[in-house]
Amino acid sequence: MIKDIMTCASKEFWFYFQSKMIYLVVFVYAAISAGLLFYGTDFYSNTSENMAQFFIYQPGILATIIPVLTMRLWADEYKYNTLEIILTQPIKIAALVWGKFLAAWSISMIMILSSVGMWAIIAQMVSLDNKWILLNYLATFFMAGSLCALSTMAATFCYNAIAAFLTAMGLCVLFVMANPGTWLLKIMPADILPEELARACDFRWQFENMIMGEISLAALVYFGLLIAASLWISLIAVEYKRR
Amino acid sequence: MLVVKNLVKFLGERQILHNINFCLKKGEIIALLGPNGSGKTTLMRCICGFYEIDAGEIRFNGKTIENGRCEFLQDMAYVPESGGIYPEMSVCEYLMFVAKLRHIDKEKFTDNLVYLAKALDLESVINQRCETLSKGYKRRVALAGAMIARPKLLVLDEPTEGLDPLQKQHLRDFLKNYGKDNTVLVSTHIMEEVEMLAERVLMIKNGRLICDTTTEEMKKLSAESSVEDYFCTMVGD
Fold first, then answer.
1. Which of A29, A34, B68, B228 is the most buried (most CB within 10 A)?
2. Which residue in the set B50, B74, B103 is minimally distant from A242, CB to CB?
């Protein structure tokens, strides 16, 4: 199973580099991240030692960019009629779903790592807590993983790349922007629903806690569950197509 | 080798296959005939595990897909009508990718690659990207992908579609040779191909198996001693 996952993942991974679009996507990501950091925040007057001004915008940026990475994952299988080929190979369908997800996640990590240059430049100007920043990058990888899984899931339901992009972006933005915990707190009394529990449902709250130095087990479980649930739904969607 | 028992398949509300029963033996080349929309492709997709079946059983070498998808599909390969190859890959990369999915070791892959490149005349395009190939080459690359693991059951949906007469002849000879030790199920509309290639014919109409016979028998039963005449008689209203 692991070997099949790696075969599928490496195929998808190299497909990204066959297309020139990946370079444009990385450039756009780096440009937006740098632009928001240097001109969208009080960076020059109040630089935080953990580059929080940079990481705080990452959910929003990644929610709009990651769907570009995942939109072709399933749509191309329909476009080139390769779904029949891949689904008649002696591999588990889960291996195919995981392979596609891992390829997208790896590319998103490479994209995020393109911002390391900014870290180096800022480190020349001010004193930074490098260990903290490293942990923030790890938190961003986890968060990106959950967005990749959500986007991959959305892509399995769509037959063309544009529909996959729009559906995935809508879903990712909804997850990042909507705060279900806040809504739950408004409608349910605090003695029934503890605030901590309600907040734990919030995507941004979990991520912001992590970048503030609280990489808790609860946050890792939250993002891990989001990945697992999304991939499970993807698997069901692919199985459904076989009916 | 392959036993299909009471196979039923619905697509949405519509029943496509109605209680299909047949079995295929080793060393047979079988033609699957039927008018458009009769359920040939659906039947092939069910055999190769692309579609889940709604009732009945498909048993290949004693295994069913429910008992283990990977084991069931290990020794069979399918080439759809549309071909289906990754345009960004070179021919060699595509074949290597399929070989990896089929867990073939490097040595066996190299042997099979050399054999298939020669047999299917792919030597000149082996490093070329699939998107740059002509339709005829794409068909042959798809076939090479299916045959890279030398499957015991080869299921081909209109394999000669898009090939020139010489390539058709070449492919028929190749399949005839391959079918001596393996089983080949071919769907086609070309009656000349049926006569030249297959010894046995399965005929489907409206999702029902209406005929399981030999090409010789078809000729005998036809008024004009031809497979085409018998086919028209059987499927005609």
1. A29
2. B50
